[in-house]
Amino acid sequence: MSYIAAIDAGASEIKACIFDLLGNEVASASRSCSSNSPETGWAQCSSDILTKWPVSVLKDAINSSDISVKEIHAIGVTGSRATIVPFGKDSIPIGPLIFWYDRRAKKEVKNISKKFGVDEFFNLTGIPLDPTPSITKIMWWRDNQPEIFDAAQIFALPQTVVLNSLTGDGWYCDDSNGSYLGFMNLKTRSWEEKLLNIAGISKDKLPHLVKPGTVIGNLSNNVAIETGLSKKTPVVISGSDAGCFKLGAGVKEPDVACMYIGTAGVTGVIINKPIIDPRLTCCPAVLPDHWDLDGLLLTAGSAYSWVRDLLGGTIKNKNELSFKRLDELAAKIPAGSEGVLVVPHFAGAGSPIWDTKMSGLVSGLRLSHGAAHLVRAVMEGVVFAELHALDAVREHVPNINSMQLTGGGGSSVLWSQIMADAVGLPVSIPQSQQSTCLGAAMMAGVASGIYSNHFEAIDSMTTTQRMIEPNLENKEIYEVAYQTYLNAVETLN
Fold this sequence. Notes:
Blueprint: E1 3-9, E2 13-20, E3 25-32, E4 44-45, H1 48-51, H2 53-63, E5 72-79, E6 85-87, E7 97-98, H3 106-115, H4 118-125, H5 134-144, H6 146-151, E8 154-156, H7 158-167, E9 172-174, H8 175-178, E10 184-185, E11 190-191, H9 193-199, E12 208-210, E13 214-218, H10 221-227, E14 234-240, H11 241-249, E15 256-261, E16 265-271, E17 281-284, E18 291-297, H12 301-312, H13 323-331, E19 341-343, E20 361-363, H14 371-394, E21 402-407, H15 408-411, H16 413-423, E22 427-430, H17 435-447, H18 454-461, E23 464-468, H19 472-492
Parallel strand pairs: 1-5, 5-14, 9-12, 15-21, 21-22
Antiparallel strand pairs: 1-2, 2-3, 4-7, 6-8, 10-11, 13-14, 15-16, 16-18, 17-18, 19-20, 22-23
């Protein structure tokens, strides 16, 4: 047997998975990344999670299986976009890891806007100008903690750090990740000198740009000894998490939308030419000569975690409120939550609004409503936010006829049914809900010669777990509820 490993350095956890060549997950391990907020809107954690965890999590995954390490032929690496950490001399981190959803860099956004322009930034990078792109966080260090900024030798993405940890050499970033650093010219796929000058850094302080699917090197001796893997094992830069999850969900045609409900949410398609729309993002895809056109939600599964924690504070045993238990509660409430509405923009609004000042909203509550109503309303609100972004995507790609749903939302029978009912399209749930790691493994499989091309990898490693058809009665209810949602968003905007 042959196997491929993948590491995903995400915003909520560091995960390692091992797949066989049919896409079956044979082992996995993970550790949660808990963020802390020293001030309102901040989201950061110790950089140790990137320098120490990936190798140990990979080792845990290997040890949890009964496969021979000699049969693992490649490792793919992906990670969250825009999350950033500074490294000084001797590859030692000198500051915290700042997550992509951190909102501290609002003044820096204004600075870029004045010197470069909002429209100019978007047209050049394909990314809206708000506190998300890494450039704003790097400038925040410059303006508020110059000792970190001045000492930094490299500003690294999670993917960059993991690759360096595995190979022991070099700092790399693929161009599907490069867009969200906020420095990359979308046309030339290179760092833009004008933006480097605004931030006050040289390009040698950013990772070296390469194409997704590039073999960066082989495992270092130390990692090979620690994991038991061959030091000849190729390490592949697979692409961004948003690019890999589409591949792992089996998306290869523009008429299929890929919906992701994880900590954040993504609604997107793969297209064969760039489309510039300020409501959406456009980045190079992991699929060669293709592009990702996405709507990004700043809160999705994190809103579900919020309601769980909120309700968990009212009972003695918080473990009773598992996500499965929440689903069971919400399933008892009819579509539309009997008038309870949640706008889940608890960390500001992403696509298609892009308003960092926007807040969430809970409305329609009455004494007759209970906790289950609020839970279902959160689930419906996240789907409405995904649909709001999808509406903008469909203006450019009108012939979308089905959806793939992955992430935690795809594991929920209720959430996936709400998605089908609200959008009015059939929803396909991939067999593997580890779509990001699976996509990273596919990229490693192609790069190492296991598959002849990406389409062979998709066909070989992805299957459908179940198909969900929309309930037409619920669809009528959701059409009314969605309009109420849009009206509520308009009042907040």
